[in-house]
Write a structure and sequence with these properties.
Number of helices: 2
Number of strands: 5
Oligomer: single chain
Largest sheet: 5 strands, antiparallel
CATH architecture of the domain at 42-124: Roll
Distance between the termini: 73 Å
Strand content: 35-45%
Radius of gyration: 24 Å
Structural class: alpha+beta
Amino acid sequence: MCMKMSMKMPMRCSRTMAVLILLLGCLCMLSDASTRIGGIRDIPDVEHKKEIQDLGRFAVDEYNTQQNVGISFSKVVKAQEQVVSGLLYYLTIKTKEGSKTKLYAAKIWVKPWEKFKQLQEFKPVQTLHK
């Protein structure tokens, strides 16, 4: 359609292209953040994903070492990931501290190709039971 050499055709082609670009832009704005590079996305079914549970154990072990405490890992109850230079994992971890069950929020940076794993944050969320 754009190949014909008439004077009206370039105008139609540019209008068609403008409409297509506008539609593409609208589609990009409507897509949710999890589909964009750098967006944080939920990880489903975390309680059955060994690699996510292992990351939760790692976070608790690192925190115990850094703070010289003895929190016990129970399970990861929620997880999200974000693509950066590697992956950032945001975990909600259920723990035991004596007779109390507590939730912690952990942020872990992983670069699998370098065998790099770093706990960046570990903070209490709430107490579940006394």
